[in-house]
């Protein structure tokens, strides 16, 4: 019977009280696997591709963690009350499903709660589980269901056996039902990237500076992964650098003798698949490419939206006398003379080829022997911010983002125009007045990027987001075009699955024992009526 046609039957009330739209599934099905597989949609890395759980269908009674028995129940948890111990309790008791309820605004959540969840999130991603796990955004109706379920669960835990039996027979409950189809692999899914360039002034063998940022986000629930800092901030800085240098390259007097190649890569959270294929196409499958000729260095932008520190991550410390070393020196100069409140350092980490996942995007270039580094406010690639659904717009400090953009722009300009060798003062600011960094534009771009989920599973070559990104790059750059990555059919490095979003219906129901109790009462009533009628007939 359709949900809107359900009617009471024999005293057992079954009517829909809520249709939770867009319950965002985080673990009921493998949303994607990167050679690692996804069990219950949490990421489980293994060397062999083994499909994880594909079923997301749910039809169980709701409980909260206060209940003693959670087996085959849909366990509801609010973020403010969530803990890893409670989550494990539900899994140990073989819960039918787990629903984690998120507040409408992450900014309203205490920071200690946000930090705690961000610390737990990687453990959830690494844990193999067959229990479907959902995330839903809280509203009044969902909160009402949670509170009623919590009250019922708490009363069962504190009452006597007789009270529990009576409460079980008379109380209302909620049946949580999803009707989504079984997840299946999406064949021929494309991961798109966008490239654009500014050609330098001079001959054909000009050195090339490559500026790269991946645009996709990552988290336990793809439809909730907005990735404001990681890596919305990187794309924001890339677009602002494109705007600034396009103006400089417009006039012959300020047209530098360097090619600038901008690349917004896809699949960054999947071991930088977009960058990997782009390098293969440019270095292995073509005779003429800016990446083949004379690459000065590759600058990767990652998580630049907050904090008072900047770190230049390198796989190999740059040698003195190289352009990479000159850029490092200019960064140190700009920070020390113009932004002394910023802590700057170089972080050296060798590439570990034994790991399934690379640490930073520059390692993709370093493997192909191209000089590269990543600039970020994060000191470690293991920071949980890089893969969290808590990475929202509210966590971005626009002033810090503007400052970091200026530091990078100033240092890059001093390198390609050789200003230090020409005697330019260390404290001379280049981007001022009409050429200043536009904080309002950075804010607008960040608002746009963080207003939508950007998980790689959600963005194809025809998506509105990608078309807008391509348009923005086309305003400032030349030869803007897309590059696409498709998984190998015989040995796929990544597999995406459908059913990323589920609709969950909550029905108010009476327990089965209520029907039995009602049947006994009716039978007793009919028995008493029958006896009364028989006595009346005997008297007549």
TrEMBL record:
Subcellular location: Endoplasmic reticulum membrane
Domain Peptidase M28, chain residue ranges per copy: 207-410
Superkingdom field: Eukaryota
CC annotations in GO: endoplasmic reticulum membrane
InterPro entries: Nicalin, Peptidase_M28
Keyword Transferase included in the entry's annotation: no
A biological process term (GO) from this entry: regulation of signal transduction
Membrane topology: Single-pass membrane protein
Transmembrane segments: 512-533
Keywords per UniProt: Endoplasmic reticulum, Glycoprotein, Membrane, Signal, Transmembrane, Transmembrane helix
Signal peptide (from-to): none
Similarity comment: family membership: Belongs to the nicastrin family.
Protein name: BOS complex subunit NCLN
């Amino acid at each position: 019977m359709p949900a809107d046609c359900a009617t009471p039957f024999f005293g057992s009330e079954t009517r829909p009280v809520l249709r939770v739209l867009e319950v965002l599934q985080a673990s009921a099905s493998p949303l994607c696997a990167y050679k690692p597989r996804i069990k219950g949609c949490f990421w489980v890395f293994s060397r062999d591709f083994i499909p994880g759980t594909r079923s997301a269908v749910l039809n169980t009674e709701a409980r909260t963690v206060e209940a003693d028995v959670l087996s085959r129940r849909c366990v509801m948890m609010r973020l403010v009350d969530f803990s890893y111990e409670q989550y494990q309790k539900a899994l140990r008791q073989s819960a039918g499903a787990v629903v984690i309820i998120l507040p409408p605004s992450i900014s309203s959540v205490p920071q200690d709660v946000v930090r705690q969840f961000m610390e737990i999130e990687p453990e959830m991603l690494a844990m193999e589980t067959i229990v479907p796990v959902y995330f839903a955004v809280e509203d009044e109706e969902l909160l009402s269901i949670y509170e009623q379920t919590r009250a019922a669960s708490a009363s069962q835990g504190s009452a006597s056996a007789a009270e529990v039996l009576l409460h079980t027979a008379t109380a209302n409950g909620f049946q949580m039902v999803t009707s989504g189809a079984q997840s299946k692999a999406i064949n021929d899914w494309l991961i798109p990237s966008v490239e654009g360039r500014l050609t330098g002034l001079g001959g054909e063998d000009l050195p090339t500076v490559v500026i790269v940022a991946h645009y996709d986000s990552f988290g336990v629930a793809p439809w909730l992964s907005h990735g404001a800092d990681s890596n919305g901030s990187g794309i924001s800085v890339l677009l602002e650098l494109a705007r600034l240098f396009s103006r400089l390259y417009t006039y012959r007097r300020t047209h530098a003798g360097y090619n600038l190649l901008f690349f917004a890569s896809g699949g960054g959270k999947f071991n930088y698949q977009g960058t990997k294929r782009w390098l293969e196409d440019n270095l292995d499958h073509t005779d003429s490419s800016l990446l083949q000729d004379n690459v000065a260095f590759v600058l990767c932008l990652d998580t630049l939206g907050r904090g008072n520190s900047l770190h230049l991550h390198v796989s190999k410390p740059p040698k003195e006398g190289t352009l990479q070393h000159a850029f490092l020196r200019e960064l140190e100069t700009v920070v020390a003379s113009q932004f002394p409140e910023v802590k700057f350092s170089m972080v050296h980490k060798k590439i570990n080829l034994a790991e399934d996942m690379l640490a930073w995007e520059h390692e993709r270039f370093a493997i192909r022997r191209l000089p590269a580094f990543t600039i970020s406010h994060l000191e470690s690639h293991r920071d949980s911010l890089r893969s969290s659904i808590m990475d929202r717009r509210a966590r971005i400090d626009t002033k810090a983002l503007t400052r970091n953009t200026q530091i990078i722009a100033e240092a890059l300009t001093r390198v390609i125009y050789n200003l230090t060798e020409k005697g330019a003062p260390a404290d001379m600011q280049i981007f001022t007045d009409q050429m200043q960094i536009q904080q309002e534009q950075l804010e607008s771009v960040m608002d746009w990027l963080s207003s939508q989920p950007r998980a790689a599973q959600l963005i194809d070559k025809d998506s509105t987001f990608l078309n807008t990104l391509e348009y923005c790059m086309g305003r400032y750059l030349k030869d803007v075009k897309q590059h696409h990555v498709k998984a190998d059919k015989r040995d796929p490095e990544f597999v995406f699955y459908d059913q990323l979003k589920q609709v969950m219906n909550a029905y108010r129901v009476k327990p089965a024992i209520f029907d039995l109790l009602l049947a006994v009462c009716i039978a007793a009533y009919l028995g008493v009526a029958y006896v009364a009628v028989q006595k009346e007939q005997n008297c007549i």
